[in-house]
Amino acid sequence: MTHSTSIDAPAWEQRLRACLPLFGHRNWIVVADSAYPAQSKPGIETVLATGTQIEVVRGVFNAIDACTHIKANVYTDQELGLVAERDAPGISEYRGHLADLLDGAKMNCIPHEQIIAKLDQAAQVFRVLIIKTDMTIPYTSVFFELDCAYWNAEAEARLRKAISTAL
Length: 167
Known about the structure:
By secondary structure, this protein is an alpha/beta fold. It has 5 helices and 6 strands, in the order H-E-E-H-E-H-E-H-E-E-H. The protein has a 6-stranded mixed beta sheet, with helices on both faces.
């Protein structure tokens, strides 16, 4: 039996690395707080993370950023900005760390139920990876909706226009 002298990456990072080459636009990755429910749809996979919520968000954000085929539209709950410190101690510090970490990312801040509806709709056809953390502050889940990194909406519109003119 051989022993490795290096420390293996946590299981969630290994699973993320395995999924990223397979994932493309319309797939989702969620870094969830501890109360996020286990979902029963076959295309949704949930793994448990070690490390803090911010460490896991950073790991996912950096891993997606390193990919040449995908980019992420990032969603956070609108409620996150409105939760009071007295009701959820630590939320102000979390919001600050998250804002610093995601600075420059395409951010979408919409009501939680709208994000869940988008996720549920995508999960009807596309795979979703949920990385569940031990975070115990409400509305702190971060949702990464993957998109194509080498093609954009403007190019698609030009292509569709060319197709319609050619017919």
